[in-house]
Amino acid sequence: MRRYEENLSTEQTEEGQQARLPQKNEHKSGKADPQEEESKGEEEIGSLRRIKREGEIRSILRMGRWINRNHITISYIRGNADGVRLAFLVGKSVGKAVLRNKLRRRLREITRQRSHMLPTGVDLCIKADQSAGACSFQELEEDMVEGFKKLREYEENGN
């Protein structure tokens, strides 16, 4: 017998007892939570929802309109009428993973704080340019606010 096996219990689990811990989206019955299944591919950021499906992001980038600012590019398309959906794109050209994650967190926070500026019913892809990694929070915020104002203007004029 190996040393680590000395303290292991030899009792078998009773019938009806699960030998493993349930996943976070499982009920005691072992089935997935139906509410979580509905929102698969999306995550809430306040009243906003994140787009995670690659196909949806590609269609926004391909068919959407563009708003270019100094360090970010906003691509948007008319989407569902009930809210705003977002995707944040930060490529490897920006820098290493720590910098990309920091930039993604900054973009999410700016968007969360300024969500009242966004028109409802649009799907957005916010793409960070290579120069965005060296920007301060204030520079990013200025670019995002300018982009959101331009987006609101375009949507109000019906373009």
Q: Please give the number of β-strands.
A: 6
Tell me the radius of gyration. 22 Å
SS-derived structural category:
alpha/beta
Count of domain modules: 1
Succession of helices and strands: HEEHEEEHEH
The poorly predicted ranges are none
State the oligomer: single chain
Description:
By secondary structure, this protein is an alpha/beta fold. The protein has a single domain, classed as Ribosomal Protein S5, domain 2 (2-Layer Sandwich), CATH 3.30.230. The protein has helices at 34-38, 54-63, 97-113, 137-157; strands at residues 42-45, 48-51, 65-68, 72-78, 85-90, 122-128. Strands 1-2-5-6-4-3 form a six-stranded mixed beta sheet, with helices on both faces. Helix 3 (97-113) crosses helix 4 (137-157).
A few lines on this structure:
Helix content is 33%, strand content 20%. It has 159 residues and is α/β, with parallel strands linked by helices.
Which features characterize this protein?
159 residues; alpha/beta; elongated
SSE topology sketch:
Blueprint: H1 34-38, E1 42-45, E2 48-51, H2 54-63, E3 65-68, E4 72-78, E5 85-90, H3 97-113, E6 122-128, H4 137-157
Parallel strand pairs: 2-5, 5-6
Antiparallel strand pairs: 1-2, 3-4, 4-6
